[in-house]
Structures are given as C-alpha cells and as structure tokens.
Amino acid sequence: MTARFDTLSAWLATQRPGQTFTLKPASSDASFRRYFRATFADGATAIVMDAPPEHENCEPFVRVSGLLAAAGVHVPRVHAQDLQQGFLLLDDLGSTTYLAGLTEDKARALYLDAIDALVLIQQAAGGDSLPPYDEALLTREMNLFPEWFASRHLGKPFDHDTLTVWKDAQRLLLDAIQAQPRVLVHRDYHCRNLMVSQPNPGVLDFQDAVYGPLTYDLVSLLKDAYLEWPEEFILDMVIRYWEKARKAGLPVQADIDAFYRDFEWMGVQRHLKVAGIFARLSHRDGKHAYLDDIPLVVHYLKRTCKRYTELLPLGRLIQSLVGEDEQVGYTF
Asked: What are the structural domains, with CATH classification, of the chain?
C-alpha cells in the first residue's frame, strides 16, 4: 500500500475512534480521485474519497452536495472532511450503478426516476453562484476534438479549409446553446454516476457542476457515452422530461420541436467534447479503455449532423475523419 493510503486510513481512524474497519477500492473515475469503501466491525459501511489536493479540490463537492441535498436530491452526505489533505467521509449509496443495474424491463422506471431527480437538480437554489458554463468554457471543451481526437488520435490535423468549417460550426452551436435558459448543470449526469438506490437514484460525481444550458444534463442522461438506447425510447424520455419540467415551472421551450432541436444541438457540443476527452485520457493519461467508447460518441455526432441542414458541413467534416456512412431515422 502507498504512503497516501496509510495516511487516509489513519485519518479515517480519527473520525471513527475505537472502531475497526477494512478499506477496499470502491471505484475510480477519469480524474485523480479515488473512492474506498470502509466496512466497520458492526457491518456499517461508508465511502472515503481520496482527492489529492495537488490535483483535485474537495470544496466544490462539499458545496454542491449541500445545494443538491437542500433541493431534495439523493446525494451522499458529507460526514467528515479534511480539505487540506483531500479526504471526505461520505454516505455509501451502494455498488449498483445504472450501467450495472439496467435491464430492458427496468429501463423505463429507472430513467423516469432519473428525470424526476434532474428536475429537482435544475430547481436547486444557488446555481447562479456556480462557475458559468459560458462561451469560453464551451469553446475550450469543443476544441478538444481537433486537438486530441482529430490530430493526436487520428493523425489528421485540421488544414485551413477544415478549420473554416470547424469555426463556422462552432459559431452555430455556441449561438444556439447560449440562447438556452440556464440552470444548475451536473455536467456528468449519466449511467456511471447514478446509483440504483432508495430513494432512487443516488447521484454522484457532481463536483464539477456549473450554471448553464438547460438541456445539457438531459443529453448526458439519454445520449450516454457508455450506453445506447433506441431513438424511440430517447424521444419518449425527452417528452416525459419536457412535461415534468413544464409542470415544475422550469423555463423549457413551449414548443416540443424547438426543445428537441435544442437537445440535439447541445448533444453535438457534448459529444465533440467527449470524443476529445476520451482521446486525451488514452494518449495523455494511459487510460486506454475509454477508446472503446468513442465509436458510440461519433455515431451520435454523425447521426445528428445529418438531420439539420446547418450542421451538414460539420457532419461531412466528421465523415472525412472517420468514414462509414450511416442511415438516419429522422430528419428535421
């Protein structure tokens, strides 16, 4: 075991004096954070987050946890914290993620629960105190695509003509996204960060929350980078969300077609970012398993770009990078 693990164990012992426990890995993610499950002699369990302070900051997790809990979202309570060392002691929401627990017969009920939780997240107070999901951040995210996916991963850097198409597409996406109403955005609201629990779902990994476009988390949920659903199911869930959000007083578009277009265009921005991030995780950080998830992300991109006349040049650009023509079920 490492010296940091020993330090973590010693810290936990000070939080639960006199109690013996074992610590085993619970999960890890794409960052430097690690999670351990502590099992105590009486059978109780807790999660210990290890976030090395030179790489991670625990303060946003603590702050956003409070915002979401106050809104009625099922998030792990913070029982103890040491921000200087980067340690948190949290509720254990179990070990069954949506990714592990989803079956065809359970999908509808689980996703409706996730939509209910999303509506609560978007009603959370204090969202405007979070970092803005503004044009600068949206642009930096999209630029991961030419830098890491096209140039580094595929070996196809953009030339002058390609860069012109890229800049035009970015402008279209940014204008559409910036026109959306703004709410608290979880930013990674997908099947690996939702736990099958009571009440359902348990919501994790919210420390990067921002204040930004309303459709972003819905895209994360329904056009998941790790799990694909039929388009009919996605459309049905979008409509269910739209109905619930309107009833809750959230500022969704009054016209469902306009709302769905916002949802689709937001998805293009997210999937450009995700393709770049997954390539970076492989080439910079040695986390090569993420490359297996890039084909689904590219599939979403090509399918959506073919539906909208304004996005056809971007679709052709992506096609020139990866090849493979695809059939598209719907056009708008």
From this structure: 19-90 (3.30.200.20), 98-322 (3.90.1200.10)
